[in-house]
Write a structure and sequence with these properties.
This is DsrE/DsrF/DsrH-like protein. By secondary structure, the protein is α/β, with parallel strands linked by helices. The protein contains five helices and five strands, in the order αβαβαβαβαβ. The chain has a single domain, classed as DsrEFH-like (Hypothetical Protein Ychn, Chain: A, 3-Layer(aba) Sandwich). Helices cover 34% and strands 22% of the residues.
Length: 120
């Protein structure tokens, strides 16, 4: 040891809050962004994905491959409650791996020390 105190921030893995606004049909960019979330989680980082606007449609249904992959990697998957309501998607029509959340959740997450936010 070099005599320097170890701070809590030095020992914690960075966290990422990734916001996806595009549906999975919007081209390869949306799918690649979600794969980036998987890679970050597999590297040991805390990762949360927030699906907003047309991104919420990616969580519609019971067996969505992209959502299954995220959940399998330990990614917390949040769906914007307002965007879901605007598209007539209630909790019963969404993957069981997701949780409805509001903008307050986004604000709190992005205000956390060590959290990096990325919007796609």
């Amino acid at each position: 040891m070099d005599g320097q105190p170890v701070r809590a921030a030095d020992t914690a893995a960075p966290s990422y809050f990734l916001i996806e606004s595009k549906g999975n049909w919007a081209g390869p960019g949306a799918g690649t962004f979600l794969l980036d979330a998987v890679a970050l989680a597999e590297a040991g980082h805390r990762v949360r994905v927030y699906l907003v606007e047309d991104g919420v449609l990616s969580a519609a249904g019971r067996d969505v491959p992209e959502v299954e992959r995220l959940a399998g990697a330990g990614v917390e998957i949040l769906v914007d409650d307002f965007s879901a309501a605007q598209r007539a998607l209630d909790a019963g029509r969404l993957s069981p791996h997701v949780k409805l959340a509001g903008m307050g959740t986004v604000a709190a997450a992005l205000a956390e020390d060590g959290c990096t936010g990325v919007w796609h």
